[in-house]
Design a protein that fits this description.
There is one protein chain. With 90 residues, the protein is mainly alpha-helical. It has one domain. The protein has three helices and no strands. α1 packs across α2.
Length: 90
């Protein structure tokens, strides 16, 4: 699929400088920028959907962890005393 993009002079200059710094073409910079943007948008949507599913599950079951429980668990990450995910409670 071919797509045409119209850029103002300042944006084009900025992107051309970036391409020069990366030793690649403007086309390569644009492709990478578009791919990164699409990845961010999709990751944000996945996060939102996961949060909504978690909220629905909490409303259905009442099961949860408090913030201090999560922080205590996370402080063990990457240590010799790394703990498993704590059990949720009512």
């Amino acid at each position: 699929m071919a797509i045409s993009i119209k850029l103002d002079d300042d944006s084009e200059d900025l992107l051309q400088r970036a391409a020069g710094l990366e030793h690649c073409t403007l086309h390569a910079v644009l492709r990478e920028a578009i791919a990164h943007h699409a990845e961010r948008v999709n990751a944000r949507e996945r996060f939102k959907q996961e949060a909504l599913a978690s909220w629905r599950h909490y409303n259905e079951t009442g099961k949860h962890l408090r913030g201090d429980e999560v922080r205590a668990w996370m402080r063990t990450w990457g240590t010799e005393d790394e703990r498993a995910v704590p059990d949720c409670h009512d």
